[in-house]
Amino acid sequence: MTTKYDVAIIGGGIGGLMAAYEIKKNDPDMRVIILERGYEQENRHCPAGAGQPCVHCKVCSIAGGFAGAGAFSDGKFNLGTAYGGMIGDELGETVAMQYINEVDHVLEQFADDYPPLYKSSEALKLKCLQNNLRLLDMNVRHLGTDKNYKTMLRLIDHLKEQDVEMKARTECVDIDKTEDGYSLSLVQKDQPLTIDTKRIIIATGRSGADFVKKMCHKFGVHINANSVDIGVRVEMKDAIWREFSSVIYEPKILYRTKTFEDRTRMFCFNQGGLVSAENNNGIITANGHSFAEPEKKTDNCNFAILSSIHFEGDFDKPTEYAQNIARNMNFAGEGNIIVQRFGDLKRGRRTNAHRLGANSVIPTLKAFPGDLSIVLPYRALTNIIETIYALDKVAPGTANDDTLLYGCENKYYSIRPSHDGNFAIAKDMYLIGDGSGITRGLSQSGAMGLYVGDRITGQ
Ligand SMILES: Cc1cc2nc3c(=O)[nH]c(=O)nc-3n(C[C@H](O)[C@H](O)[C@H](O)COP(=O)(O)OP(=O)(O)OC[C@H]3O[C@@H](n4cnc5c(N)ncnc54)[C@H](O)[C@@H]3O)c2cc1C
Q1: Nearest CA to ligand 1 atom 6
Q2: Which residues' Cβ are closer than 6 Å to ligand 1?
Q3: 280 touches 212 (CB < 8 A)
Q4: What is the pLDDT of residue 428?
Q5: Which of 48, 233, 252, 328 has the fewest Cβ atoms surrounding its Cβ within 10 A?
Q6: Total structural domains in the chain?
Q7: Same domain for 424 and 401?
Q8: What are residue 384's phi and psi, to 5 degrees?
């Protein structure tokens, strides 16, 4: 069966949802469909359960499904352009901020008790500066995992009320040009299906990187080189970072390492949080989140330390490079993430079950006790260790022997296809969100969705 849509959105994360929202707000008569290869939001369940190892589902319910990679996230909305993506560079600060703030206003409609903003702190900025660290300026709206989840459910309900068609477990596997638009080849619950549409918004997130690359090659879109981040998730007692988290909620800190003069960053901080596992096409990496409700808080906090790797010359496979590191980590971790005590890493020995059992920081994720240094590249590992010591100067205790490191946590943004200035990579084909290599977080991905929604409806 073939049906004609005005806009087909591939991917049901915040980018795709915000695009649909804006299109319907501006032009309620447009026929819009969202195709999502994962499950409906309410049917997304990780069979491993909290704290248990990953069981390798075909489509990871943590990374994909309606509400996207952000569904079970901490729901931290970074209302600025200093991090979380590069739409400030793409659109200019004023326009970028207009759309980032608009994401905040849209979400406010669907959340109960919208939480207040955490603002940046001059005193903490100075403390960091005095220790060669740069605390990034940003206002943050922290919804927390549960409130964020409910807000996204309500946004999706609203879109359904606006007659946006939502197709779960429907993967787009190919796109062909037709006379007046595009034909999409889909696999819906293992059955092939084709739909016709005038325009396409590709909003497939990081997990859709292979699909985007395939389509860029097919439609002759130039791909620009991008970097990858290799790193670890770090977990320790919550009290160690409370001076920061009680004031600014999420410290995001840059550091220039001593040995290599590379830039590292501490980010994605979760106060009272849990370390989580993420399955990206069979590769398990670490992440973290936290609940807003006090009774769901743990005694720990966690954050990522990432070391950026830039490739020079014609090397166009940075994602594959980083995936191979993560794959090796899973191989060495018997199919899982590896956890290591910082004290063991320093002493050049693996963490074993005995030492982990006696650790004062109790791990919130069941991972394989092992040795990160047998997998992580020397340069990245050196950068990570130096960053931990630098952070210890502003939050003493960060470099304690019992601090836990989970490996690895990689961020892939390698493909950054060229676009026309309005995120169209071909005629009537837009690429938005984390899959575009331009955004790296909820606010900016959502902002790109709203922006493209406006372009499509001529606003
Ligand atoms: C555990 C975790 C915690 C996070 N916490 C935060 C946070 O607190 N704050 C923050 O700003 N960011 C956070 N992030 C990052 C944030 O979730 C992403 O930046 C954001 O979700 C990107 O949105 P997106 O719509 O571009 O892509 P995604 O949310 O990844 O959505 C893309 C969707 O497309 C689907 N898809 C992919 N390929 C296809 C295909 N071929 N056909 C159909 N569907 C397809 C996927 O299943 C997925 O659901 C977190 C991420 C994780 C995993």
Answers
A1: 73
A2: 10-16, 35-38, 63-65, 68-70, 73-76, 78, 84, 171-172, 203-208, 211, 276, 278, 287, 289, 433-435, 440-443, 445
A3: no
A4: 97
A5: 328
A6: 2
A7: no
A8: -65, -45
Domain presence at residue 171? yes
Instruction: Find the domain containing 294 and state its range.
Output: 228-412
**What span, in angstroms and rounded, lies between the C-alpha atoms of 13 and 7?**
16
- pLDDT tens-place string over residues 320-374: 899 999 999 999 999 999 999 999 999 999 999 999 999 999 999 999 999 999 9
Do residues 339 and 445 share a domain?
no
Cis peptide bond N-terminal to 408, omega within 30: yes
Rounded-to-integer distance, Cα 360 and Cα 246, Å:
23
CA of 243 to the centre of ligand 1 (A): 30
Q: Is 130 inside any structural domain?
A: no
Closest ligand 1 atom to Cα of 288:
1
Residues 407 and 452 in one domain: no
Q: Quick one: how far is CA 34 from the chain centroid?
A: 20
If asked whether residues 145 and 191 sit together in one domain, one would say yes
Contact by Cβ (8 Å): 433, 205: yes
Structural tokens at position 20: 């649909």
Residues 332 and 244 in one domain: yes
Lookup: tokens for 88: 């400030």
Residue 122 lies in a domain: no
- Residue 49, pLDDT score: 61
DSSP string, 352-378: -HHHHHT-SSPPSS--EE--GGGTS-H
pTM score, two decimals? 0.80
pLDDT score at 259: 97
Residues 145 and 199 in one domain: yes
Give residue 240's pLDDT.
98
Q: 305 has which bridge partners?
A: 232, 266
If one residue of 434, 444, 451 were mutated to test the ligand 1 pocket, choosing by the most ligand atoms within 8 A of its CB, it would be: 434
Nearest residue (by CA) to ligand 1, atom 30, is 205
